[in-house]
Specification:
Length: about 120
Amino acid sequence: MENENPPDVPADLNELQSQFDSLRRQIFVILVLLIVVSGTMNIFLLRQWRYASNDARTLKEQSAPIFAEYQKVSGPRIDEFVKRVTEYGWSHPDFRPITLKYSLSTSGPPATAVPPRK
């Protein structure tokens, strides 16, 4: 049993062709929008990177004197304080767990340390 009324082939082809053309235009518009949006995003990220680089450079220049002052004055004082706390920890057994907890001392007691109390 064949189809008694054959479909109108030219009308169906024209309709399919118009749908195909419409779909092609939509895809083209979406691709153009995608390129525009990604370009805009890249420009935005480039500007943010430049701002962050300038801020980091400025911060580094402003903080250099502070770090130099710390290394000259405060650094040795802190090192001396840590050394004294470590010696205190080795000479007082009650304080030793604190020195071990904060890794103030990884080696044995210093040569000048007083033996622990009994």
